[in-house]
Design goal:
Order of helices and strands: HHHHHHHHHEHHHHHHHHHEH
Structural class: mainly alpha
Distance between the termini: 51 Å
Protein name: RNA polymerase, sigma-24 subunit, ecf subfamily
Strand content: under 5%
GO biological process, one term: DNA-templated transcription initiation
Pfam families: DUF6596, Sigma70_r2, Sigma70_r4_2
Radius of gyration: 23 Å
Low-confidence stretches: 96-113
InterPro entries: DUF6596 (IPR046531), RNA_pol_sigma-70_dom (IPR014284), RNA_pol_sigma70_r2 (IPR007627), RNA_pol_sigma70_r4_t2 (IPR013249), RNA_pol_sigma_r2 (IPR013325), RNA_pol_sigma_r3/r4-like (IPR013324), WH-like_DNA-bd_sf (IPR036388)
Number of strands: 2
GO molecular function: DNA binding; sigma factor activity
Oligomer: single chain
Helix content: 55-70%
Mean pLDDT: 84
Length: 421
Amino acid sequence: MSSPHDIRRTIDAVWRIESARVVATVARLVHDVGVAEELAQDALISALEQWPGEGIPRNAGAWLTAAAKNRAIDWLRRGTLIERKHEELARELEGESTMPAPDDTAALEDDIGDDLLRLIFTACHPVLTPDARSALTLKLLGGLSTDEIARAYLTPEPTIAQRIVRAKRSLTDAKVPFEVPRASELPERLSSVLEVLYLIFNEGYSATAGDDWVRPALCEEALRVGRILAGLMSGESEVHGLVALMEIQASRAKARVKADGEPVLLLEQNRALWDQLLIRRGLAALQRAETLGGSLGPYALQAAIAACHARARTAEDTDWTRIAALYEALAQITPSPIVELNRAVAVSMAFGPAEALRIVDELMQEPVLRQYHLLPSVRGDLLFKLQRFTEAREAFERAASLTRNERERKLLLARAAACAH
């Protein structure tokens, strides 16, 4: 019999994977994402109370969804919704098909009947600020904690928590419908949707906290929804650019972690383990982005950078000069300290660590990077290459003290120890 601790870990894992689907399904029924999240949380509490004694259900996700739907019935009964809506919900729970009433026909005009996509576009409604859209969608779609979202944005956690609370209140007050926007409304919401998908993918690709270096389920979810979005907006270069970027990065998943969970850095990875199918898909998506014409946007440029790595048979074959030029182009359209930090890495590989160190030293004065562990990590690497080992060790130790990921912390401390000459 499983211990209470093991069951709790299983419940946490199931919730991480299934919460977005549960919230999205219930939101379609109650048309309020704030209420839907509360009902989903109630279902989670029931699981925490019942599963330790009764055991984990065979289909835990379906159990959580059914429990949340049952709570939705109670909520609808207490509310002021018309009796017809309650009857439709009851029939859905019984597995019966329900024909829409005439005033429901607009829902059939949606191009995609995907609850998760509806949830993204609802959370990204223009009534919210861009920051609130991204934070709320990460919370609802990615199942991320406010702490993880805060670290992704390099923003204090109380600020993120406040954004999420205000965002849900604003959606309720504005009576925002739970639907995929019509074609004429899609472009204005696209940029925030792409940003959200990329942040969800990145949280899965390099977890900000915990014992695991990666969370594959988050990457898979971002890719799944990204592919759907690419089908919905096939004429948008940046949609294909983001999908290309995620496909190529996801192709490295098996090579990024050793059997014991220890992370493997890009230049040390066994490229034979890279998923060639995902690489081909990514390169094809990048080609679609390029053939649509016009200047490449930030996601397509990042995909082009990833493609340079994907096309190189060995680390030594990488075209670092082109990568540095692509980062320069990226910095022109989306200037940020993090882009500059990535450009510094490329400059180091293309032109030497001394030139790159000058860029990084300037970034040390950036307030937004003060608690960003990759800044001292990159600086430590450059100092190591310049044989300034004492300074390199201090930089790696500083980076280790800032990261919240245990695997990454051990890696950084190992690099610090390697500086002892």
